[in-house]
Structures
1.
Amino acid sequence: MKRAECLFCLLSLKLIYKEITIAIIKKRKHTNNKNKVSFL
């Protein structure tokens, strides 16, 4: 059960991280396209 919980936590954190990075990319897309590469 602990392993499954840890995996779920990691997956949720990864999804949150992806959403945050996508939001940052969208915000900075018009200022600089080079930032997009650094976040990928």
Note: Residues 2-28 form the longest helix (27 residues).
2.
Amino acid sequence: MQEVNTLDEVVDQDEATIESYDEYQQIVDTIGMIPSLRMKDNVIQGVVVSLFAIIGTIIGYVREETGTGALAGLAGGLIVGIILTGVVLAIQGLFRFFKKEKSTPKVF
């Protein structure tokens, strides 16, 4: 038989989920190099990495005029795009963390 949760239990679970998400995002912002769950960050990173991949493919093809050059350019574009966007997102996460720290009142 399926267990039915009361409204209070559902609300408590939702609040715990939100708190867990906030704690996870704080760890991501502090440490970096951990996958973020922010949709906006992931979409922007995907678009930018795709652009780097396309540009790398074009440059590779123009330089070598073969499929091998295009593949090498694609790989290079992906690597550069991932590294650069990762660094930018890590720095952005630190700014978010410090901004949140300033706005959070200290309790002694």
Note: The CA atoms of residues 53 and 67 lie 14 Å apart.
